[in-house]
C-alpha cells in the first residue's frame, strides 16, 4: 500500500511538514465552516483562501476543485502555491511573479552579450576592467619570472623552499656536468598514493634528489592527469620538476619544455580494427555483473584505450570496492585474457592498469616507449614502479634490459629505495 498525504485535512499540513510545531486546534478549525477571502486559484481549479482573523497557520487554506470529502492530497495542488499555503513564504503566485526574483542573475543573449554584461558588473564593482586586466597581467608576470620575494603567485601549492630548490637545481644544471645515471619514476602508486596528488614532502624530496641526479617521470595517464597529480594542474611547474616528462607512456613527452612528436593509436591500428575491438569490449563488459556500475567504460587516448568494467566515473569509494571485488573474482584478468585471445593478432597488447582498467595499446607502446628518448643519453637508467609484476603496467619497462628495475610499495618506499640507490655510491 502506498502511503501519501491523501485524506489529511489541509489544516494539518503545516504541522505535518514541519513548518510549525503547533498542532491545529482540531475541532474549531477543521476546514468546514471557515470563511475567508479567495486570494487565487491554481491551474487545477483549486481555490486558495485567507482570513487573518484566524491564528497562523490556520489563516490560509485550500478548497479542492474536486471536492470529494477528504479524498484529496497535496499532490493535487500546484506546487507554486505550497510555500504560501505552508507559511514558508508570504508571496503567492498571484501577488508575486512565478519567475524567481534573483537580482544577482543575468540573462544573456550569447557570448558577446555575456562579455558586455560581465564588464558592466565589474565596472560597478571595486575594480575597473582595466584594473582587473592589470592585476591578471601582474600575476602572469610573477608567474613567468619568480621575483626575489617569491610572492607565491602559484598559490599555496608551492612553498618558498620549493621555489628556491627549483632555482638552485636550474642553476646547477647549467654549471655542473650531467650525470651518467637517470632515475625514471612511474606516477600513480610510486610518486603518489593511488589516484591521489603528490604530497609537498615528496615533491621536495624530488627537488633535492634532482640536485644530484637527473629525473624523468613516465605516467600511463594522459598529460592532464599527470600534471594534476604531480603539480596541481600547473604544467610549467611539472616540467620544471623533471628533466623529462612522459605522459601516456611517452606517446606525449617533453625534454625540458620541448615537446616530442605525439603518437596516436588510430594511426597505428586503423579505425576498422579499432571499432571491432571497442564493440567486442562493450559487449563483453555488458555481461559482467559487479556490485555497482557507473559510466565511462571506454576511455580513448592518444596511444591507449582504457576499458573499465565498473566505469571510470565511479567514486573513490566505489573504486575501492571494485579493487576488492576484482581481487577476489579476477574480473580484469579474465577480460585481458579474452582480449588477448581475440585481438592479440592485431599487434595489440593488454595490461591491467591502475585500479579499475584494462589498458589496450599497440605492442611496444608500454612504458618502454619512452626509453628511446633517453637510452643514448645515460649509462644507467633506474626505473621505480609499483605495478612491475607480469600484467602490470610497469612490467615491461621494469623487465627491460635497458633499465635497472625497482618495485616499490608506495611513495614512502620509493623515497627509501632512491636513497638506497644514491647511497650505493654509484658513479652518478
Ligand atoms: Mg603505478
Automatic annotation (TrEMBL):
**What does the subunit section of this Swiss-Prot or TrEMBL entry state?**
Homodimer.
PANTHER family in the record, alphabetically? PHOSPHOMANNOMUTASE (PTHR10466)
Provide any one GO MF term from the record: metal ion binding
CDD domains, A to Z: HAD_PMM
Please cite one Gene Ontology biological process associated with this protein. mannose metabolic process
Q: What is its EC number?
A: 5.4.2.8
- What are the start and end residues of every segment in region (Disordered)? 93-114
Location of this chain's protein in the cell? Cytoplasm
Q: What is the active site of this protein? A: 186, 188
**Name used for this protein in its record:** Phosphomannomutase
Q: Which is an annotated Pfam family here?
A: NDUFA12
